[in-house]
Amino acid sequence: MKEYYEKKTVAFSKDSSNLFFHILTKCNLSCKHCYINPGQHGENTLSIETIRQWLNLFAEKCSQINVIFLGGEPTLHPDLLLAIKEARSLGFKSITIDTNGYLFHDILNKISPDEVDFISFSLDGATEKTNDSIRGKWCYQTVIAGVKKAVAAGFSTSMIYTVSSENLHELSMMPDLVKELGIQRFFIQVIGIRGNSAETLSNFYPPSSESSYSEKKNNLELPDNLNLPDNLDLPDNLDLPDNLDLPDNLDLPDNQPSDKHFLQLSMEQWLEIVPKVAARVAKLGITVTYPKVFLEHGEPFQCAGVVADNYFIFPNGRVYRCPICEDYPVHSLEIQNNTLVQTDKINEADLFGLEIPEGCVMNKLIQPGNISYHGDGTPCHRIACCMLKEEIS
């Protein structure tokens, strides 16, 4: 008699461990909010030999690690099946495929539910009109068909919905849809400034309700002896110690809002809508994971870089511990000659433990425009770690 066990997938909690393995950056779509940046992540497709070698770098603790195969679109990789088999043979805690739903290379007929714990589908609208305006024509019908085929074949499925101002109005329609499709886990994501989103930065931030951008003050306090690389070019509005040496090739944006169309939600929009929809989905018996985004008054900030163990691997060998800074060369680890090595200081890991009034240091450095301030310069709210999320079921 076959022993039953509850299938696992990516986890966003304290002490969790995840390996986000981008085996290529190629994709058949060009979604408005895609975070992939080939210039920073590489344009190559990893060979199956390299994939095997890189998976083995984590073999000693793989029983504690959830591995997620991503791209680009991972099913475009001709050897995804072999990569899955390697991960399974090594004994990773769980194996997930993140897909846009096109399921290339007839992947569902090549793998079995015993080999893959979850197939996670991305959908960014409850209707074809909204989803396809974000992800591309015909995408909605393709994803729906892919989910139905996967569920019929016995695969556990999850769905990712990246919330922005362009699809917030349809989030309330998602509970019925995911229930109808047989989805077992629902992930609500917050849109971030990476990849394609960063290219339209002037349209990204909602206007501050407390103060204008020019009135915002900096409360970022970093040690005077923190020596950062010379090629780190921080935003003009960021006041740091005079001897803070940042790398010149890290060209961070000014992030000044305008009165144009904004992709990111305001705090009021997020708190009013997202938790309520998540609760509705959970009442249907579906596990829901969503980012807290804004800490409650008095709630301590925790960084996943300190209390969890996440690795974001890209085809060019960069290994980040925090996804927010993936557009910049501040990765703390790198794979060189099939060996995982630490990069030169200062890198992302040197910033994880810093405490600032705004909460997340990376958010303050990379996307400061989404923080509102009171007239006295104190932040109106603190930003939570994007890798430590709420989960309800």
From TrEMBL:
One of its GO terms (molecular function) is catalytic activity. SMART domains: Elp3. The keyword Lyase does not apply. The lineage of its organism: Bacteria, Pseudomonadati, Thermodesulfobacteriota, Desulfobacteria, Desulfobacterales. InterPro entries: Aldolase_TIM, Elp3/MiaA/NifB-like_rSAM, Radical_SAM_PqqE_MftC-like, rSAM, rSAM_sf. This is Radical SAM domain protein. Keywords: Iron, Iron-sulfur, Metal-binding, S-adenosyl-L-methionine. Pfam families: Radical_SAM. SUPFAM superfamilies: Radical SAM enzymes (SSF102114). It comes from Desulfamplus magnetovallimortis. Residues 13-230 form the Radical SAM core domain. Its cofactor is [4Fe-4S] cluster.
